[in-house]
Amino acid sequence: MQMAVKTYRARTLSEALRLVRQELGPDAVVLQTRPVGGHLLGRMLGSGGVEVTASPSPPVLPAADAVAPPGEFPDGARLRRPEALTCQAAPDGGAWNYRRKFREDLKQLRSDGQSLVGELCQATTAPLDHLPPAMFQLYSELIHAEVTETEACRLLARIAEKLPDGQWEEVPAMKDRLVELIAEEISVGDPVRVQPGCRRLVAAVGPTGVGKTTTIAKLAAHLRLRERQPVGLITVDSFRLGAAEPLRAYADILDLPLAVVSTPREMRAALARLSEMSVVLVDTAGRDPRDDGQREEIRSLLGELQPDEVHLVLDSARRATQLEKSVQHFAAVGCTALILTKLDETTGLGHLLGVLRLCPLPLSYVTDGQNVPGDIHGAVPHELARAILRSDH
């Protein structure tokens, strides 16, 4: 019986896999990947791409005494498969032994002083058709969750090194292991902790439009309504007309004292008035730390305030490169923790994986809606890992 095979072309492997999943469904099997438009000028102009050959179901494999030559299926369909990565027949006469061959490939890569990540990610069109079917399915799901190809390959390499032989073809077991790996790489910090008899000063900084004021309101409501703590508010966002009004509205609803300051002297006076509070939350103006003048404003403010905690608030819906640059710049002015907002406004959380892995700041909170105080949560690595993978368990 002739196997149904379709070919897709796209600019990147991620886009091609998305087309495969949309048309052939989640059980589709990728048979081949190869670059197209590969002449030098085309690559320089970005006009190249990738070609993916896929089938809606796995090919029917031959018996041991009828194994097709490397790179050829029984029905005669030729596959472009590197000789070193060709899967051989199993000694017991069954299907190709993907698990054993993949471990041999991994061992050979190590002996050559190369890493699996380097082999898989050396180009946009990596030779992934040698992966065991279950592992390739996991790779496809990572790409679908908007994890970058580099991060997806890196995670597969870690799984390949640590997963027991008996679980190589068990997708649920590999997903469980993947959740563990991601959770291990997410550094988390404590939420705001109230110490009896000791006032806690907590400042929020970040670029414009990331949700600092709403986050401050959520923290204030949580501490006041759920933990029954006396909370005071300070806003130094007096540079824009009416900038303090949103926080003033929250303060009125929650019956919290609010001070609006614009000078160091006003800051000292506000702190004196709020000396009996268990927690004082400080909302700041959105600033661009790449600007030398604005960076000095942040330093001056934090120097005057001398806060116990400085939480950098970032919008999770922004691109990974934007998030990484913001972390780098704001960490230099004395931030101690990271808050990610608007998780509900993203199409996928996979782009956060690399950001969190490399971030020097521990993640303290995440927010996922506009409800005050309900949509703010202390960071839990395993929960965030499952959210990144869109895991159901």
Give structural notes.
This protein has 393 residues and is of the alpha/beta class. It has two domains: 6-185, no CATH class; 200-389, Rossmann fold, CATH 3.40.50.300. The chain contains 14 helices and eleven strands. Strands 6-5-7-4-8-9-10-11 form an eight-stranded mixed β-sheet, with helices on both faces. Helix 5 (133-144) runs antiparallel to helix 6 (149-162), helix 7 (171-185) packs across helix 14 (381-389) and helix 8 packs parallel to helix 9 (245-254). The longest helix is centred in the middle third of the chain and has 15 residues, at 171-185. The model is unreliable at 38-47, 61-99 and 109-127 (pLDDT under 50).
Q: What are the salient characteristics of this protein?
A:
single chain, 393 residues, Rossmann fold, 8-stranded mixed sheet, 3-stranded antiparallel sheet, 14 helices, 11 strands, 39% helix, 15% strand, elongated
List the helices and strands and how they pair.
Layout: E1 6-10, H1 13-24, E2 29-36, H2 40-44, E3 49-55, H3 98-111, H4 116-120, H5 133-144, H6 149-162, H7 171-185, E4 200-205, H8 212-226, E5 231-235, H9 245-254, E6 258-260, H10 264-273, E7 279-283, H11 292-305, E8 309-315, H12 320-331, E9 337-341, H13 352-358, E10 363-367, E11 376-378, H14 381-389
Helix pairs in contact: 5-6, 6-7, 7-14, 8-9, 12-13
Distance between the termini: 39 Å
General shape: elongated
Q: Which sequence of SSEs, written as H and E, runs from N to C?
A: EHEHEHHHHHEHEHEHEHEHEHEEH
Q: In this structure, how is the largest beta sheet organized?
A: 8 strands, mixed
Task: Name the strands of the widest sheet in spatial order.
Answer: 6-5-7-4-8-9-10-11
In the CATH hierarchy, what is the architecture of the largest domain at level 2? 3-Layer(aba) Sandwich
Number of separate domains: 2
Query: What's the overall average pLDDT, rounded?
Result: 76
CATH superfamily of the largest domain: P-loop containing nucleotide triphosphate hydrolases
CATH T-level topology of the largest domain: Rossmann fold
Uncertain regions spanning at least 5 consecutive residues: 38-47, 61-99, 109-127
Can you tell me the CATH class of the largest domain? Alpha Beta
Strand-residue fraction?
Answer: 15-25%
What's the helix count? 14
What is the gyration radius calculated from CA atoms?
27 Å
Extended strand count:
11
